[in-house]
C-alpha cells in the first residue's frame, strides 16, 4: 500500500486522556492493511502451514499442521517435540497467507517484572500530572490517605459519567497493553489491567477505592486494549522503510501509545524484517460526516432543538464468515460518534462487540457464525447517559437473496453485570453523579439488506433491562431504534439518512413511573473503505 494512502487514512487522530479524573476527549484515526504471506522453514525442508481451502475442515488442518511441525522440530531420540518452540504454534497462516498469531520469533514474551514496572510507571506518571500540573485535591497522597483507603474499604463513587465509563476504561487499556505489547496474549494481559486499577484505587488518590472503577478499568479496559492492539497491528509493518515507516509508527502510537512506547524501548520501531510478523485481519472502515438534528419535544421529527455537526467512524475487523478458529477479538466492531455545536458533550457514543470464542457453520447458501461475545455501550449526549458492560452469545448470518442482493443479520443476548443510567433528561452540566448503578441484561438485533453497492437499508434495535442497585430503587426498560438507508452517489461514497428513537420506561419504587420518547435525525455522507477479504456492508 502506498504512503499516500497511509497519509490520507491517518488524517483523523486518536487522542484520549489517561487521567482518571480529567475530562476525556478523542478524535479517532483511520487505519490500513498490508497483508503478505509468510513462509516458515523447519530443519531440512519448509513446513507448509497455510490452510488450503476445501481440502478438509479448518480445525482438522490446524491439528495436522501442528502435529507435522511438532514432529519436524523434534530433535530427541524419543521423538519428543520442543513444546516451547515458537515455531510450532505461532506461524500458522490462514488461506490468504496471513498469520493467525503474532510471530513469537520476532515478538518474544518479556520477563514478568517488565510489564509490572510499566503499569506502576503509568500510575506514577498520572499522579504526577494530577499533582503538579492539574493541581487536583485528590492527588495529595500520603501514608494517612493510604491507611484510610485500606481501612475504610470499597464504595460506589460519585464521579462524572464520562470519567467512570470512558476515562477509566481507557486507562485500563494502557495497563492491558503494557503486557500485551511485551509478548503476553489476551488472557495473560488481563491481570495487568486489574493490577493497575487496584494500585490506583488504593494508592493513587485520596478517595476510597470504588467497585465501579475496578470493573470498568479492568473489563472495559481489556475490551478497548485488545482492539487498540489489533488495529495498531494492521498499521505496523516492520518490512517498510523511510517515510512510510515513520508514518506507520506515528499512527500506531496515536492508536496505542503504550505499545509504541515499548516498541521504541525494545528497538522494534527501528528494526527491519523480511517477513510479516504480526497477525492482521481484514478491516472495513466506514466514515460518516453530516448534520445531527436533536428534537427537544417528544415524538417529533425535525422539531425544535439544536442541529449539530457529526463525525462517525466504524471499524469492522475480521471476517466473521471465514472458517477458521477464532481467538478473542479475531472479529470485532467498534463504532464511535462525535457531535459538535452544543456544549461540552463531544463524544456522543462509543459502542461495539468483540468475539471471545466462535464457530462457523453452513446451511446451504446461509453462512453462520455463532459464539460468545463481550459488549460495551457508552452513550453520553444531550438526551441520555447510558453505559453498559455485557457478556453473552451472538449469531451472525449472511444470505444471498438474489444476484447482488445480500442480507446480513446479527442477534445478541447478554448479561449486564454493571451499567450506569441517567436519572434525568437533557444535558448533564454538573460535576457530580446524576446516574444510577444497575445490572440486568440486553438484547440486540441488526440487519442490513444490500442491493449491490447502489442501495442499502438497515434496521438496528437495542433493548436494555436495568435493575438499579445504587440510586432510587426501580427498573428501566430502554429501547434504541435506528432505521437507516444509504444511496450510492459515487464509487465508495454514499448519502444516508438515519432516524434515531430513544424509549425510556422507568418504574420507580413508591414513585410514579416515567415514560419518555426522544428522537433524532441524521443526514450524512459516508465513505466506505472495503477490504478485499471482507466483502460486504455490515451494520
Count of alpha and pi helical runs: 10
**Major sheet characteristics:** 12 strands, antiparallel, barrel
Overall geometry comes to globular
Strand arrangement, major sheet: 3-4-5-6-7-8-9-10-11-12-13-14
Helix content: 25-40%
> How many β-strand stretches?
14
Average pLDDT works out at 86
Fold and architecture overview:
- This protein is an alpha+beta fold.
- Helices cover 27% and strands 34% of the residues.
- The protein is built from 10 helices and 14 strands.
- The protein has a 12-stranded antiparallel beta barrel with strand order 3-4-5-6-7-8-9-10-11-12-13-14.
- Strand 7 and strand 8 (385-402) form a beta hairpin.
- Residues 1-47 have low confidence and may be disordered.
Task: Give a short synopsis of this structure.
The protein is of the alpha+beta class. The protein has ten helices and 14 strands. Strands 3-4-5-6-7-8-9-10-11-12-13-14 form a twelve-stranded antiparallel β-barrel. A two-stranded antiparallel ribbon has the order 1-2.
